[in-house]
Amino acid sequence: MMRDDIADEVLDNADEVMGEIHPLFRGAPSSTEFRKLRKRLVRETRAAIETYDMIRPGDRWLVCLSGGKDSYTLLAVLHELKWRGLLPVDLLACNLDQGQPGFPATVLPEFLTDRQVAHRIEYQDTYSIVKEKVPEGRTYCSLCSRLRRGNLYRIAREEGCTAVVLGHHRDDILETFFMNLFHGGRLASMPPKLLNEEGDLNVLRPLAFVAEADCDRFARAMNYPVIPCDLCGSQEGLQRMQVKKLLDEWETRSPGRRQVMFRALTNVRPSHLPDPKLFDFSALMPDASDFNDKAVPDLRRH
């Protein structure tokens, strides 16, 4: 039996036991469509975890929860894997309240408590810093993400975590690749697994193989209390939104295009790219001795 079949069988058999479900899946639809979606999310997340060797048994992961559809999906699927005995790590959910005006500060603590999820809520007013430091008309994302990342690293260390786990999915990785291609002049994207500069924390993206559309379907079906980002979400003309629109148009014209492009990112041929730092082109020289040993035709006979 294949690994995917075993994982599906574990889910099927466990669900037959009364009450055998993590509280994060309380109220889940009983439809065949949702069941297939749930299995796909679990299977793809587990595949990414195994492919990029994310697990060290006994580790503790800080699972970052923004309140968006992607982080809710991440939280639920990781707890599903742990509930089924397929993820031997300790999970701590964390929300960083960045002080955005109107942010519903009680939503996530109440949700996490109700669903029996270990968590930490941290308040740090990075919103005011971003608004003060970023000139009018410039995008907030870069400074906002740096401040957020610094705080999350600090919290992870305080909580004894070995990894900061983020909800970036396949489409985020693709969008970042094209942003670097179009605007940064480099071939780079979000790695599924990264060691921070200090060398003491891994940054993990277990949803690397998961489509954004599936995260959206899952969060909607579960009726999770999704909280929009009013800081960057309020800005128009962002490069990421432009790239997202372009990818949407390609996907509409050629369904499955996103998956093909993502597969290309996992099938790189350095010898077919013009970067001398990736491949030793100087070594590609014919052997002169082999050439001299070959018979040379006598052209005088013709």
UniProtKB/TrEMBL annotation:
Domain tRNA(Ile)-lysidine/2-thiocytidine synthase N-terminal: 61-222
Localization: Cytoplasm
Catalytic activity: cytidine(32) in tRNA + S-sulfanyl-L-cysteinyl-[cysteine desulfurase] + AH2 + ATP = 2-thiocytidine(32) in tRNA + L-cysteinyl-[cysteine desulfurase] + A + AMP + diphosphate + H(+)
Keyword list, A-Z: 4Fe-4S, ATP-binding, Cytoplasm, Iron, Iron-sulfur, Magnesium, Metal-binding, Nucleotide-binding, RNA-binding, Transferase, tRNA processing, tRNA-binding
UniProt main location, coarse: cytoplasm
CDD domains (alphabetical): TtcA-like
Needed co-factor(s): Mg(2+); [4Fe-4S] cluster
Enzyme kind, highest EC tier: transferase
Pathway entry: tRNA modification
Motif PP-loop motif boundaries: 66-71
Highest taxon listed in the record's lineage: Bacteria
Classification via InterPro entries: Rossmann-like_a/b/a_fold, TilS/TtcA_N, tRNA_Cyd_32_2_STrfase, tRNA_thiolation_TtcA_Ctu1
Annotated binding of [4Fe-4S] cluster, by residue: 141, 144, 232
A GO term for molecular function: transferase activity
Keyword Iron carried by entry: yes
Cofactor note: Binds 1 [4Fe-4S] cluster per subunit. The cluster is chelated by three Cys residues, the fourth Fe has a free coordination site that may bind a sulfur atom transferred from the persulfide of IscS.
Known EC number: 2.8.1.-
HAMAP family: TtcA (MF_01850)
Record family assignment: Belongs to the TtcA family.
The protein's assembly and partners: Homodimer.
Note: The thiolation reaction likely consists of two steps: a first activation step by ATP to form an adenylated intermediate of the target base of tRNA, and a second nucleophilic substitution step of the sulfur (S) atom supplied by the hydrosulfide attached to the Fe-S cluster.
Record function comment: Catalyzes the ATP-dependent 2-thiolation of cytidine in position 32 of tRNA, to form 2-thiocytidine (s(2)C32). The sulfur atoms are provided by the cysteine/cysteine desulfurase (IscS) system.
Name this protein carries in UniProt: tRNA-cytidine(32) 2-sulfurtransferase
Gene: ttcA
